[in-house]
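Table S5 (text form). Sequence records supplied for joint modeling of the two-component complex.
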Amino acid sequence: MPKVQTEPAKQPIARELLRELRWAVEEFNYEYADVLDRGEIERWPDFFTDDGIYRLIARDNADSDLPLSLMSCDGKGMLKDRAYAIAHTEMFAPRYTMHHIGQIRVTDFEDRIITAQANYIILETLIDEPRACFNRASITTGSSCKATRCCSRSDVASTTRCWCRHASCFRLEIDLGAYEDDHHSRRATAPTIQA
Amino acid sequence: MTRAGHFANPVAAPPSEAVADLQWPNDASEIPDWVYTDQRVYELEQRRIFQGATWNYVALEVELPKPGDYIRSYIGAVPIIVARDAAGQVHAFENRCAHRGSEFCKTYRGSTKQFVCPYHQWTYDLSGALVSVPFRRGVKGKGGMPADFKLEDHNLRSLNVTCRHGVVFASFCQDMESFEDYLGPEILDQFDTVFDGRKLKLLGVHRNTLPGNWKLYQENLKDPYHATLLHTYLTTFGLFVAGNKTMILTDAKGRHATLCNARPDGRPDNDQDKSEIRSFHAGMQLADPRVLQLIKEKDSPWTSNAITIWPNLILLRQTNILGARQIVPMGPNEFMLIWTTFGFADDTPEMEQHRLRQNNIFGPGGFIGIDDNEALKFVQDGIRRSVPRHGVAPLGRDDEGPDTVITDRAIRGMYRHYREAMGF
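The corresponding structure-token record, covering 619 residues in total, follows.
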């Protein structure tokens, strides 16, 4: 059987705090999705810290302990290079995307760092083929820049863009550390994390 | 076909009644649209090419390192299993129960002592031989198999298998020429540049489906013209440009080819030739240039070998990425690619990380792959949706030297062989 793709919460978080943390993650993710869906790909690296890691790993590779990623950006420089290529040098047909992010779970809150995960669906519509095709995925936002796992139902990887075109889900970890200092004073009760 | 053992040998291709209305154009540089779209042509290709006298890539041995290990694979569109038996020998056989036809193995890879069809529990060993069937004598003296039922008459049909330097090829044809003869000396030398006999380490596998005809992918890797024009990462950073030292070879029959390029130290100049290349971005700088780094590791004059082995394998050695791409046709308008990426068992951890990083350029979601995936879709869209018209591959000459880059010679060679194999 495939390995479990989500992790249980490490320690119970008080309900009020949990609600605030989840709201903070929602705000972060919704801004992230909005920027991508507007096609402002060159703003995408700004959601990461300088040492942030972004990886897409096929489910089969994750389950088989194979290290290869579909995409692997190690540090903000590689994210910028990826964004620049998509914006300026890659050849692909124009398209619209729409991210739907849900099922946000905060699994840990320790040392001012939120670890969370979410599922998402991307609807992708080619300009000349006005039908949406599904992409399903899950996002993990978290502090530890460890390997992210791509958990896909079909494990068919991307065809044209860097996200999975066929049904798949993956976990993406984003370091929220960059946002802490600005909001440190308010964090204890109601963290307001903004992208 | 026989019930047991192996597949019947293919017969030489006679002209087929089924496609008698399809006439190949007289001009050798023309390629008719119907080779990419016609269902009858697709089905004929399965029989005459993939099930014919060809060696098909099916696995790397490192994917089944131990006795009992197996992997699902394909020859053409046909699902097969590649397995290693207790003695260490590699077998390939159909993934189709001899009883009622069920495609019984649905797991991508694994390890087992035997294969049991879940429908009626017919059980096969690691060579594909039928070893047991339930209720063979029936129950209480009633039912069961006929008295003359023999297990050995119902083995899975096995394929001819050959291995070279850790790579497994299989054929429906039992009296195939040797793999070495099939490649010919020049392409074999290229093959050995990628697989030099050192032990491999599997880094990962990606699979994607592309909305195009499978032959477009063979053509794409036999097409140095596009490589010098379409891909910004190749042109701007000098990984494959027209001005580099280049070698383009095919085997004597035109089936296989290799595009070799020697990358210069540093970036190519923005000379006059480049003004014709829209993908060349003279001012482009990478924030993190580690991805482009070339770590010298082989005694080869080339930094890039793109090798196409007919009919279903692309081998890429480019900078420090090593990969095998298996083509799996899925009807005339779609194919799957299985990208198996590997390094060597004696790689340092730094080298492994470097190879993994370079997959950002050369993997299915890489800076080159995205361009190619889209270009192939554009071609299939154009051919499928517009009024038929022959495409042309007119560049270069068939008697030119191997250092001509702006050429369609290898594509023409492939179609010369294709016509012979197909009877067109």
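Note: Residues 1-5, 135-195 of chain A have pLDDT under 50 and may be disordered.
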